[in-house]
Every structure is written in structure tokens, then in C-alpha cells.
């Protein structure tokens, strides 16, 4: 695991100052504390920071081919590198190192851009071909590893693992993109096809891009996609056996490391499954760690402890409390762009805890997206069944007015809180799901904006890109379309960004075996009834894992990594909420209505409404605006 950065002159091969490349890699030194390197040639400069995982003493980067024609910098792991190496050696390739980086050089020579199709793993890399005067950029299929890029006015292209690598370059203009603010307020993060700094882009997951000297910046090319075909044949027992077999292979491939290795353990189905399969494959006790909360209703450490005892792991745990709010500056620095998933705080803490003993930790991320495990999947499918019984005209004429009149009763028993359900059924599936994923509704955002901000948005609405992506998703059923946008938008933008920044912030490599692309594609072939049945998400996975895990782990209500920010903003952090809404960077932007912000904080503090997530969003946005733009 590492950090990469570089400069490429698209027009003419002007000299590249090595010190400027080093400045960019220094900004991401936390990603690679074990080594650094810079390579330059006319018109190009590549920089690298290394966290040594495989071939610890060898494989320095930037790495050049034996003849000097090719040079690469690489962030990530290629898990099938040993099999690739054997194939390449059979075709005459000679290796000088024992790591996976050299496979990129030989892969490019053998297959060109199609080499990425041969790689199984998580990666973002750049490869410069001196003979062709081309720079090749690529990102892994699910977007585990990030890659930012921007073109300057003089035809210079900058790229880096994090936004801070680009902002370290003195000629990058820093101006906020108001559409990215709209995206952030809608979903709690800035999506992969946007950036809060205008003009900066992210290479999409499962895409590559070949830059050629003398030609304009090209569009990224997709090299892989997941298809929710739902056409797998076989009994539940047979498909369940295949699922476990594929999970086992994915876990074992990600246990290859030349440094200490462990796992995050929340006590939920996914992390418990990963730990069970790790324990099966390991000759020694698996190192596990978990984070709890000082709010009993959100604490899962008891479940994690039970799994640790079941598989005799070397287990450690810690508790997150309001005192950990002091981490907010650390998180703002780690993410650069505003990031409002409050579970980033405990995720950072669990990464710190893991790093005390290991350099690599396996996580359970990815199963919910691929197997319909979120509560919103269950609600969405139930709404679809009702929606299919009612003509669109009836839903619009009858349900929409009823939903508008129905009171919003967050305080009432769940069965009486029908407003959001009625609103969802009245809308199209795409509109309903985009809202279900969101944090702040279009109406709620509109109330926050000043007239100037509304004019700047010019009618732009964050949900539109979700709706378009879902409408065109390669899926056989509506739930598959929802899962597709989860995998291609929510996962890289929120979940994987969170894990990458928090783990790399402490020099830890996080690996996600449940996001093995062949495993994900197999899961996408499962019929709807094996993903979600009778309101039970991840149905086949839970059934198949009963050979390893008890029912009280498999079938307990899903909790998630929830941080009690609502309680904190009514108690020890109430003054912080006041500071943010009254005298923060938000006021200086001119985008937000001051009276509305003050009302939001007052309503939350008094218990008249739950604005905890919105206040966390505003707090993280405040910090990001200050750091990036000096408000």
C-alpha cells in the first residue's frame, strides 16, 4: 500500500522539477512511511511513497523495466501476482524482484492496456512508456484505491492518490465547485465523478486512461462492469457452497503478506464471516480488534467478543466517546474533501488500534452492496411490490397528495411513520431510491441555500445522476439496479473512501476480500430470492455461513457502525454546533441562509427535531472549506 503522484506535460516535454514532484509525495507521506522515490524525464515526473507489505526489502519505486523504457508507480496489491508471474516467465519475462509491482511492467509489455483485465486486486497506478510518449493511468474495478487528476491551463496534468497531493502544486487553482457542495449535502460525501475543487477529477473505478503527448486529455475507458443478471441456476445448497468456496478463496488470497496481518471485527455478519474464514486458514491466532461506544444501544463489542472467543482470536477493543470529537481536525485533514459519514471516527480509531500490532487488516466491506444487505434494500423491494400493483397515474394522483399531508412523526412507533413510504411509492423507483440513499432531501437543501447559491446551481439536483445511473444499470430486476448504483457510486464514494483515508492515515493497509471482483460478479448472478427473501438481506450468505456462525450473529438486527452524533450535539458538543452555524466558514461562503442554520441547531438542541446528521455534515464542511480555501 502506498501513495503515488506525478506530473505529465501533454503538449511539449518541458522539464519537470523533481523537487515539485517530491512536494506532492510529501503531502501524502502518511500513505508510505517506509520509503520514497522520484523519477523524472523530459515532460514527466513520477513520485512514490511506500508502505512495505510484500518483498519488504526489494521492489523500490518508481520502478523501471530492465531496458529503461517503462517506469511505473503503484498503489495497492495484485493478489494473483504469483500466478501472473509464472505465466509471464513462461513467455520469456525475466523478473528482478519478488513483489507484485514488476508484474505491471511485464503486463504492459505483453498486453498493453488490457493488462488491467489480468490483475486481481486493488490498485491505482501510473505507467510511463518512453518509446510511445504515453502515460497510462488505471484504477481497480471496485474503486478501492483512489486516483485524482487535474489539467492545468498550460497543458500540465497532475495526478495523485489524494487531493492534497494536487493542492501541494502551487499552480493548481483552488476554487470551490458549488455543485459538489450540493452533492455533498445530498449524500454526505463528494461522489467519484465530482470534486469540491473545481477542475479536479477522479479516475472512475474500473477505468483506465492513456495520455499521449501532443493530444488533448482523453476520456477514461471502462474495462469492467458488474451485471446483475440474476440468472444463476442451481439449488440454494449448491449455490451456497459455491459462495462459501469463493469467499474462502478471496480471504486466503488477501492473507498473503510479509508483515503482520489481522482483521477488523464488529460482530456483524460480514466481519465475522471474514474472521471465521481467516481462522480456518491460519496456523496461529488471528489478530482482531473492535471499537465500541459509550451509548449502550449502539455498542456491538459484546457480539465481537463472542466471535473472538468462538475462533480463539487475539482480540482487543476500545471505546469511542464524545472526547474523540477532538479527532475532527485529523479527519478533515485525512479526507480533504468534506466527508460526513460519522462512522469515519470509529473507523479511524479501529485502524489505530489495529496498527499497534499489524500492518495489514482485512475488513468485511462489500457484502451489503452485492447481496442486498441494507435496510433500504428491504424497504425498496417492498415498495416496488406495492408500486407494481398501482398504475402510475393512481400513484401520482392519490398517493402523492396523501404522502404530502401525512405528518412526519419521527417520534411515533415505526408502523405509524408512513410518510417516507408513501412518498417513495408515489415516485418512480429511481427517484425513490436516490432519496433513500441520501441524507438531506432536495427540499431540505433548498431551505439551507441563499438565493445566490440557488442561482449558481442553475437547477442542478444531486439525485439526478443517481437516477440516470440506476435507469441504465445492467440488471434484471429493480433491486439489482439499486445494488448496481450502490456498487458503482455509494461504495467507492463513501465506504471505500472512508476505509482508505482512515487506514492510510495511520500507515495501515486495509483489504476487502468480500470485494473480490469474481466473487461480486457471482453474487450478481444470484436470483433476487437468494439475495433478499422474506425481508432478510444477504439470505444465501447467512444460510451458507451457518456452518461457521451462530444464528444470534447471523440473524440479529443489523446495527452498522453508527456514531451517536445526535446525542453528542445535544450534550457535550452543543456549543460546537452553535459555533458552526453562527460564526464559521459556512457564513463566509454566502451559500447558506444564516437564520435557517441557527434554527436547525436550536431545534436539535431542544429535541424538537433530529438534525444530528445535518449538523455533522455542516461541521465537516466547515473544516474542509477552511483547509482547502481559507474561509
Question: Could you write a compact summary of the structure shown?
Answer:
With 631 residues, the protein is α+β, with helices and mostly antiparallel strands.
- Per DSSP, what share of the residues sits in E-state strands of 2 or more residues? 15-25%
End-to-end CA span: 34 Å
* Number of continuous helical runs: 29
Strand ordering within the main sheet:
2-3-1-9-8-10
Major beta sheet, specifics? 6 strands, antiparallel
Q: In CATH, what is the class of the domain at 2-222?
A: Alpha Beta
Number of separate strands = 19
Helix-and-strand structural type: alpha+beta
Which second-level CATH architecture of the domain at 2-222 applies?
Answer: 4-Layer Sandwich
Helix content: 40-55%
> How would you name the CATH homologous superfamily of the domain at 2-222?
Aminohydrolase, N-terminal nucleophile (Ntn) domain
Mean pLDDT: 92
Which short descriptors sum up this protein?
single chain, 631 residues, alpha+beta, Glutamine Phosphoribosylpyrophosphate, subunit 1, domain 1, 6-stranded antiparallel beta sheet, 29 helices, 19 strands, globular
What features would you describe in this structure?
It is a single chain. This protein has 29 helices and 19 strands. The strands form four sheets. The protein has a six-stranded antiparallel sheet with strand order 2-3-1-9-8-10. A six-stranded antiparallel sheet has the order 4-5-6-7-11-12, covered by helices on one side. It is globular and about 70 Å long. Helix 16 crosses helix 19 and helix 19 packs across helix 20. With 631 residues, the chain is of the alpha+beta class. About 1% of the residues have low confidence. Strand 8 and strand 9 form a beta hairpin. The relative contact order is 0.12. It has a domain of 221 residues: 4-Layer Sandwich (Glutamine Phosphoribosylpyrophosphate, subunit 1, domain 1).
Amino acid at each position: 500500500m502506498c501513495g503515488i503522484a506525478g506530473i505529465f506535460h501533454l503538449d511539449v516535454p518541458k522539464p519537470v522539477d523533481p523537487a515539485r514532484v517530491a512536494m506532492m509525495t510529501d503531502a501524502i507521506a502518511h500513505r508510505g512511511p517506509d520509503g520514497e522515490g522520484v523519477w523524472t524525464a523530459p515532460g514527466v515526473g513520477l513520485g512514490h511513497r511506500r508502505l512495505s507489505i510484500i518483498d519488504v526489502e526489494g521492489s523500490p519505486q518508481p520502478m523501471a523495466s530492465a531496458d529503461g523504457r517503462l517506469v511505473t508507480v503503484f498503489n495497492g496489491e495484485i493478489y494473483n501476482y504469483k500466478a501472473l508471474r509464472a505465466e509471464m516467465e513462461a513467455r520469456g519475462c525475466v523478473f528482478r524482484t519478488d513483489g507484485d509491482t514488476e508484474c505491471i511492467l511485464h503486463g504492459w509489455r505483453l498486453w498493453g492496456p488490457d493488462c488491467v483485465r489480468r490483475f486481481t486486486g486493488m490498485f491505482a497506478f501510473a505507467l510511463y512508456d518512453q518509446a510511445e510518449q504515453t502515460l497510462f493511468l488505471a484504477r481497480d474495478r471496485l474503486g478501492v484505491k483512489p486516483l485524482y487528476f487535474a489539467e492545468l491551463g498550460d497543458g500540465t496534468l497532475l495526478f495523485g492518490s489524494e487531493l492534497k497531493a494536487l493542492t501541494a502544486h502551487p499552480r493548481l487553482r483552488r476554487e470551490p465547485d458549488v455543485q459538489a457542495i450540493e452533492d455533498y449535502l445530498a449524500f454526505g460525501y463528494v461522489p467519484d465523478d465530482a470534486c469540491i475543487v473545481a477542475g479536479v477529477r477522479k479516475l472512475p473505478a474500473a477505468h483506465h486512461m492513456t495520455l499521449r503527448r501532443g493530444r488533448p486529455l482523453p476520456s477514461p475507458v471502462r474495462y469492467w462492469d458488474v451485471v446483475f443478471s440474476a440468472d444463476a441456476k442451481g439449488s440454494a445448497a449448491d449455490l451456497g457452497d459455491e459462495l462459501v468456496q469463493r469467499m474462502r478463496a478471496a480471504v486466503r488470497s488477501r492473507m498473503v503478506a510479509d508483515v503482520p496481518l489481522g482483521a477488523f471485527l464488529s460482530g456483524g455478519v460480514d466481519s465475522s464471516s471474514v474472521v471465521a474464514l481467516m481462522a480456518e486458514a491460519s496456523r496461529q491466532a488471528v489478530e482482531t480488534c473492535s471499537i465500541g461506544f459509550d451509548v449502550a444501544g449502539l455498542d456491538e463489542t459484546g457480539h465481537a467478543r463472542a466471535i473472538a472467543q468462538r475462533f480463539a482470536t487475539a482480540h482487543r477493543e476500545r471505546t469511542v466517546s464524545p472526547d474523540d470529537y477532538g479527532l475532527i481536525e485529523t479527519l478533515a485533514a485525512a479526507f480533504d474533501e468534506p466527508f460526513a459519514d460519522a462512522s469515519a471516527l470509529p473507523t479511524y480509531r479501529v485502524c489505530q488500534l489495529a496498527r499497534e500490532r499489524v500492518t495489514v487488516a482485512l475488513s468485511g466491506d462489500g457484502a451489503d452492496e452485492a447481496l442486498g444487505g441494507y435496510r433500504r434494500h428491504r424497504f425498496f423491494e417492498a415498495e416496488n411490490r406495492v408500486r407494481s400493483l398501482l398504475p402510475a397515474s393512481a400513484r401520482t394522483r392519490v398517493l402523492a397528495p396523501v404522502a404530502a399531508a401525512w405528518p412526519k412523526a419521527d417520534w411515533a412507533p415505526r408502523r405509524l411513520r408512513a410518510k417516507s413510504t408513501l412518498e417513495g411509492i408515489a415516485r418512480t423507483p429511481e427517484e425513490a431510491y436516490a432519496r433513500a440513499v441520501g441524507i438531506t432531501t432536495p427540499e431540505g437543501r433548498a431551505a439551507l441555500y441563499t438565493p445566490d447559491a440557488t442561482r449558481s446551481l442553475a437547477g442542478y439536483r444531486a439525485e439526478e445522476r443517481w437516477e440516470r445511473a440506476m435507469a441504465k444499470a445492467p440488471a434484471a430486476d429493480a433491486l439489482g439496479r439499486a445494488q448496481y448504483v450502490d456498487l458503482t457510486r455509494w461504495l467507492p464514494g463513501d465506504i471505500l473512501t472512508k476505509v482508505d483515508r482512515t487506514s492510510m492515515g495511520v500507515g495501515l493497509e486495509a483489504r476487502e476480500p468480500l470485494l473480490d471482483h469474481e466473487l461480486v460478479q457471482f453474487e450478481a448472478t444470484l436470483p433476487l430470492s437468494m439475495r433478499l427473501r422474506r425481508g432478510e438481506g444477504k439470505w444465501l450468505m447467512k444460510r451458507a455461513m451457518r456452518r461457521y456462525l451462530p444464528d444470534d450473529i447471523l440473524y440479529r438486527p443489523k446495527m452498522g457502525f453508527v456514531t451517536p452524533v445526535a446525542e453528542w450535539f445535544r450534550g457535550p458538543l452543543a456549543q460546537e454546533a452553535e459555533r458552526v452555524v453562527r460564526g464559521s466558514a459556512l457564513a463566509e461562503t454566502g451559500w447558506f441562509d444564516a437564520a435557517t442554520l441557527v434554527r436547525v441547531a436550536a431545534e436539535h438542541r431542544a429535541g424538537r427535531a433530529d438534525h444530528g446528521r445535518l449538523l455533522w455534515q455542516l461541521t465537516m464542511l466547515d473544516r474542509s472549506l477552511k483547509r482547502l480555501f481559507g474561509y
